[in-house]
Amino acid sequence: MFVQIIEGRTTDAAGLRRQGERWQEELRPGAIGFVGVTSGVTPDGRAVTVVRFESQEAAEANAARPEQGNWWAETEKYYDGEVTFTNSTDTTTWMGGGSNDAGFVQVMKSNGVDRARVEAMDAALELHASERPDIIGGHRIWTGPGSCIDVAYFTSEAEARAGESAEMSPAVAEIMAEFDDVMGATEYLDLTDPDLH
Q: In degrees rounded to 5, what are phi and psi of residue 54?
């Protein structure tokens, strides 16, 4: 899978959402290999869009379409200042991947990650998924040898916060305590009203 993460700032979240809906209606039918998109704006105006295609070739073919270029020329007007693009084909899913049923999405940007230990803990946590029914699943996009972006999908923000503070079994508590160490420095971006397709 190929993933592109688009980041910027906006003071018009509604305008960006309209452009996203317009893409779904007008451009998606011709976007061969399109898998899905997760987008939203944090309370402080940081816009994040995570677009998934079956392959890099499919994404490049979509980008080359004139209608895609025209759409983007209009869309970038809704951003304030620079927009950054991060591409990766090194991706994994956990707990089944994302879901369009999510009511809350958290994007976590981490540096200094111990990949081998993180992936071992992912496997261990999957065995205890029933302890966090608020977590629907997620994607991890590797952006460098020790850097990644996690996109976690939750049933709702309220249930996610309750799950974070709930008492855990000793096995899960031990794994979670280790996570802070192996994930390095992490920045959290909360999408409280995500747009999911």
A: -60, -30
Residue 45, classed as helix, strand or coil, is: coil
> Which residue type occupies 48?
V
| 29 token code pair | 């039918």
Q: Are strands 195-196 and 34-41 parallel, antiparallel or unpaired?
A: antiparallel
Cα separations (Å) of 163 from 55, 159, 176? 35, 6, 13
42: helix, strand or coil: coil
Tokens of 63: 């980008």
36-52 CB burial, b ≥16 within 10 A, e <16: bbbbbbbeeebbbbbbb
Within 8 A by CB and 6+ apart from 87, the residues are 2, 3, 4, 5, 56, 59
Q: Would you state the structure tokens that stand for residue 159, as one six-digit string?
A: 């249930």
Q: Find out whether 54 and 28 touch, Cβ atoms under 8 Å.
A: no
| Backbone dihedral region for residue 57 (phi beyond 0: left; psi -120 to 50: alpha; all else: beta) | alpha
| Residue pLDDT, tens place only, 86-124 | 999 999 988 888 889 999 999 999 999 989 888 888 887
Lowest mean pLDDT among 82-86, 136-140, 143-147, 170-174: 170-174
The candidate with the shortest Cα–Cα distance to 51, out of 62, 63, 38, is 38
